[in-house]
Amino acid sequence: MMYKTSMYLNLEMLTQCAPETLQAQPVVEIIIALGSNYQAEKYLPLALECLATLGQIRLSTAFQNPDFTATLEQPKPDYTNQCVHLILATPMSLQQLQQTFKNLEGDCNRCRQTDSNQVRRVTMDIDILLVKLAEEKNSLSNKSISKTTSNWTVMADRYPFKAHEAAGIEELAVTGV
């Protein structure tokens, strides 16, 4: 389901948190990066179909990028990357989302290879870039107290974003995340 809402993101001004500090926090919106370097035409639509069951999604353009770890001696297949803005139908903890995405990677036949000499075939990689936490309610006044102006939090382990992630986030923000 596609929708339009407005969002302004000044990434430098947003709070950065390590994911482990937010594990139990209720998340209402999320921006994730999808990546595939093997049968992306099959696995990206499958992942998007599964993500749409969690709420409303909007997509950035899919970009094809060289694997930044490739060398002349060890060439690697290009990645297809896309950012997704997901408004969750039901708030979930960050920990629940991480497990859901890990399961989704598995549903896309992701195999985590341990042999570093082998070319990695990544059917689906899902990285959490930004989360929007639920607003806290003050039980005495029943008024919302926002932790930050926008409530968006950058996952510190993903920042600074890779070029394709920043481009995807910017496109989502400009078109109305």
Automatic annotation (TrEMBL):
Where would I find the 7,8-dihydro-6-hydroxymethylpterin-pyrophosphokinase domain in this sequence? Answer: 31-133
The protein's Enzyme Commission number: 2.7.6.3
Pathway involvement of the protein, from the record: Cofactor biosynthesis; tetrahydrofolate biosynthesis; 2-amino-4-hydroxy-6-hydroxymethyl-7,8-dihydropteridine diphosphate from 7,8-dihydroneopterin triphosphate: step 4/4
SUPFAM superfamilies attached to this UniProt entry: 6-hydroxymethyl-7,8-dihydropterin pyrophosphokinase, HPPK
- List keywords of the entry alphabetically: ATP-binding, Folate biosynthesis, Kinase, Nucleotide-binding, Transferase
Top EC class for this record: transferase
UniProt keyword annotation of Plastid present: no
* Name of one Pfam family that matches: HPPK
Q: Which Gene3D superfamilies match?
A: 7,8-Dihydro-6-hydroxymethylpterin-pyrophosphokinase HPPK
Q: What name does the UniProt record give this protein?
A: 2-amino-4-hydroxy-6-hydroxymethyldihydropteridine diphosphokinase
Q: What is the lineage of its organism?
A: Bacteria, Pseudomonadati, Pseudomonadota, Gammaproteobacteria, Moraxellales
